[in-house]
Specification:
With about 200 residues, the protein is mainly alpha-helical. It has a single domain, classed as Ferritin, core subunit, four-helix bundle (Ferritin, Up-down Bundle). It is elongated, with a radius of gyration of 17 Å.
């Protein structure tokens, strides 16, 4: 499945990945079409990751509160920690947007859809491996987007550059830890180490 989704059914199945992929597309479009010629240009760019960070807050909180016995207490605490860190990123991005004179997007449009999917689905250990794989796909997309933002901002705005670097460092840690969690789940539940056959193949242009 491409990130340029046209199927409403697939949109409903993967709202989390859809939103992260949409952030990557918005970021790339901004970078390709708008010069770093004013604080307003940088502020507009930062709203895309802000929305994604808010979606990730909802995602990780849902993991912590809805997975029940499918995860250990230590893993639940990790998800809660991720949610707090992503909320911190969102808060920092919002402050920077305001400092640059921009308008902050207040709501993440996919939050309701994500909550609705979690309300309906049952999560066992096998599904947990798929959820962690979705998380890793999303973290990979976000990491590449933040790297592209760093190249775009460059030396034009040192404060924004430092902010993105600090967020990127945390996202890299999340990816490493999620990979370790998923490897442990697969070790117990899927000795072959097979990846999900249900997850989308994202092609973000």
């Amino acid at each position: 499945m491409s990130a340029n989704l046209t199927s409403p059914a697939l949109d409903r199945m993967y709202p989390f990945l859809n939103e992260v992929a949409a952030m990557r597309r918005r970021t790339r479009h901004h970078i390709r079409t708008r010069a770093v010629d004013s604080p307003a240009a940088i502020a507009a760019l930062l709203n895309a990751p802000l929305v994604t960070e808010l979606v990730c807050v909802a995602r990780y909180r849902s993991h912590a509160t809805r997975l029940g016995d499918a995860i250990a207490e230590t893993v639940r605490n990790e998800f809660l920690k991720y949610a707090l860190e992503e909320q911190g990123h969102a808060n920092a991005l919002a402050r920077r947007i305001r400092d640059l004179g921009g308008e902050v997007i207040q709501e993440a449009p996919a939050l309701a859809a994500i909550a609705d999917v979690y309300d309906r689905e049952e999560v066992d250990a096998d599904r947990l491996a798929d959820l962690l794989e979705e998380d890793l796909i999303a973290e990979g997309i976000a990491i590449e987007s933040y790297r592209e933002m760093l190249q775009y901002v460059g030396a034009h705005d040192a404060a924004t550059q430092r902010l993105i670097e600090s967020i990127l460092a945390v996202e890299l840690t999340h990816a490493e830890e999620l990979a370790a969690m998923r490897a442990e789940v697969l070790r117990r539940e899927r000795p072959s180490g097979a990846t999900s056959t249900r997850l989308p193949r994202l092609e973000v242009s």
